[in-house]
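Extended Data, panel c. Modelled sequence:
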Amino acid sequence: MACAPRLLQVVPRRCNLTGAARPVTTLWQRVPHRRACASTSAERIPSVASRGKPVRWDFVKCQPVFDKYVEFNFTEEDKRRFVGERAKFSADTRLLNVPPHVQSPAEMDWRETYEALVTIARLDDHISGYFQELIYGRVEDKDLMGRFGISLLEGKTLEKPLHNTKAVPREGAYFAMLQQTYWLSLHVWLVHSKQHMIQENEGIFGSAICALITRRVFEWAWVIVRLWLKQEDVPAMSIGTELEHFMEYVFGFCAALDEAFLQEASHGSAKAVQRKDNELEEGQVGLLPCVKQVLWSNVFFGACAHDHLQLEELAVYLIRQRIALEALPRTAFFTRRRPAHW
């Protein structure tokens, strides 16, 4: 059974999804996940998405958009639970074994600079296709998704008969696809967050590269979601509307992640995960509990227990990826050169 959807005929050629695989460890760090027991594995229980109900993120009202996107309204019960979560996650050795931060080994060479100029001038794209390959590799990794209770919709293709009037989406497909879209957007956000960190200190040339990466990767992601909707037999006249709804959910999810790391890890995620309770500033609850709450509210629709193993594993996975990206040198991010110590 092929992975859904089969995009090899419709993705731009320069994405090179069928070419030789590049080492994904350049950006995505492999994490030693703890497997769930048989009674809670993704194969034995229905996806959380089949039981949950998505709720769009509540944006702050009466505030200008450029001031703040979201705010966290944690209850007293949440804050009491966060105390135990901080102690639990602080003992997780997977969050301590991360690559050290080093300065960029060198600037781009003449060939890499030329390719970047060609990409910025819109004559070709030598940059964003690599990020698309990395992200789509994670979307096709069913074993990795299964460890977090996320299923990949399969069984349908993009090849439809001319008159496909009787075909309808499968029961539960909407929630499963939305959760699958969250998984895709989580990795898009990781690339965007690294680009944003670099762009803050860049000149015109580097800033143009950063802006292009985010724009191209997000545009590509929406093409993927549109094809998923078409593959699942969503009526043609409804695809645009459904895509807009998915965009609203994803935008809220990304804005919440931005706020979580800005509030809890302004000096770096590696330092934030080691912060003790008495070192928290006013208004802070700890990076791991805050990120876990964002994932619980969005990816898991608030439908699972707060100590759900797959939820906790996804929180560790996301923060470890973020720590690795923060340590990745600027030139390595732009040119796909892997640092020697990684």
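Residues 1-51, 56-68 have pLDDT under 50 and may be disordered. This feature is highlighted in the accompanying rendering.
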